[in-house]
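lol ok so funny story. i was supposed to be doing the assay writeup but got distracted and ended up predicting the structure for this chain instead. priorities right. anyway since i did it might as well share w the group, maybe its usefull for someone
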Amino acid sequence: MESPTFKIADAYTFAVAKGLEVEANEIRSMVIHSAIRRPAAVRKGCLVELLESRGFMDQFVAQYWPGRHTDAGERRRATFLEQKLLNERLLRGEPLDEDAAEEASGRQGDEFPFEAEQASFALEAQLRDFIAQNLPRIPINGRRVTLYTDPAGRAGVEYPTGVGPIDILAVDDSGEPPRLLRRLVYVSPAASAGVS
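and the output, tada:
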């Protein structure tokens, strides 16, 4: 059975390959309202909109999203775009009705079932965003650190390099060169035991 969704890492890679690196990096580092429980869904909505508006969606679907045109794929696409719009409303400070509040909290029952891989990726993205937002409160080796910002204004979240993005790039209060915070990876007991 074809998956009704796509991996966000594939979408970023595809966008960069199509000359949309700036746009992909803006999506990676975009602000997600704290009421949104699935930040990856917001980012996927932005990526869907980007690829559709630039005429690359058919190529992306052929390579990375074969379940796009199934009923579940159609629902997933709609949910991604709804989450994107919901995030924009929340960031503008618009009041939410009951349905929108339910969407933000992620309590939609079986309408948006997450496979384990997608759920863990969403949690990893949430963890990365939480750490980036609270970096000044987290002492590392006894020093305070802040998010690195390059001369062009690019923040140190998913910071692009020639070998792939750095999750979080920070500078400490001594002014020493930027430091890399390694990705925190959770491996479930089942996965580590070889159970899939």
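Residues 8-113 form one domain. Confidence is low (pLDDT under 50) at residues 107-120, 182-196.
back to the writeup now i swear
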